[in-house]
Amino acid sequence: MYKISIEEIEAFLTVAAYKSFTRAAAELYVSQPTVTKWIKHLEAELGVRLLQRSSRSVELTSAGNLLNARWGGMRMEWETSVHLAQQLSDAQGCGCIRIGLLYGFDFESKLAPLASQFESLHPDLKIDPNLYGFDEIKEKAGSCDFLFTTNLEMESAPQYRTLRMARIPFYLAVAPQHPLAQRGSVTPWEIRRETFVVISSQISSNIMAHFDEAFRPFQASPTFVTVENVPSQFMKVSRQEGVAITGKGFVKDHEAAVRLLKLENFSLEVYGVCAWRDENLLEPARRFRDFMLETFAGKISG
């Protein structure tokens, strides 16, 4: 039996996610030498090289890619099983229904009246909402009964069922000095030559491919600059290093740095969805699922 710890596996998965020992140490709240020690022991115990390290980059080996894929699924199953055990520990079979909300799409205001109505119908239950960024919501999915996210983010999660709620409008974020800044709206044709600042596809799945497809009818292939988070995205936009296609909710706290223009006739359809895995739902969560199905009577997939 290999003498490896959960901490070592978690360190490997975190380094694999961020391609950085420094970032992994910050995420795990330990020192970088500690992460390095865990990875070295893990590799020595398994007898395989998992990461190729240089002064500038960290890349997964073939063995590292295999274990990252397998162990990533195990981590989600671990979190899910712990969450279900916590639910079962309630002698009444009732308690909180944990919902993960993707930041930036105003899901918190959409959930508020739904939670109020549901809790009035089921006073023995309580909605527990938690707001997450793109990378966080993937990590926390196993500990949530439901996710309020977008159809694009769920494309790589066929194990989930999804209920479509409402279409999400797109806006173009530009610097105040941009020639288009005084416009109220723009079309894809008018911005087809722009450089687009987007969240890395490692964090937000397939976003560049979707944008590329949306511009194809205009004989345009967009140029992309990738960043790791929303603040970095708007910082580049404000410095006129590109423009960004975004949701209105993301601009909160960045209003002075960018101008928002409504994006007309954009073919990419993004919807807010409620997602869940039926096999993970205990009785309290099944009541919320049925409530959502009755409320929206929408299209179910998965």
Tell me the name of the CATH class of the largest domain: Alpha Beta
Compute the separation of the termini in Å. Answer: 38 Å
Coarse structural class: alpha/beta
Determine the CATH topology of the largest domain.
Answer: D-Maltodextrin-Binding Protein, domain 2
How do the helices and strands follow one another from N- to C-terminus? HHHEEHEHEHEEEEEHEHEEEHE
Largest β-sheet summary: 6 strands, mixed
The CATH superfamily of the largest domain appears as Periplasmic binding protein-like II
- Rounded average pLDDT: 86
Structure annotation, total helices: 9
Strands of the largest sheet, in order across it? Answer: 4-3-5-13-6-14
Low-confidence stretches: none
The CATH architecture category of the largest domain equals: 3-Layer(aba) Sandwich
As a whole number of angstroms, the C-alpha radius of gyration is 22 Å
How many runs of DSSP E, i.e. beta strands? 14
Shape designation: globular
SSE blueprint:
Blueprint: H1 6-18, H2 21-28, H3 32-46, E1 51-53, E2 58-60, H4 62-88, E3 96-102, H5 107-121, E4 126-132, H6 134-140, E5 146-150, E6 161-167, E7 171-174, E8 185-186, E9 195-199, H7 207-215, E10 223-227, H8 230-238, E11 244-246, E12 259-263, E13 271-276, H9 283-296, E14 300-301
Parallel strand pairs: 3-4, 3-5, 8-12, 9-10
Antiparallel strand pairs: 1-2, 5-13, 6-13, 6-14, 7-11, 7-12
Helix pairs in contact: 1-2, 1-3, 1-4, 2-3
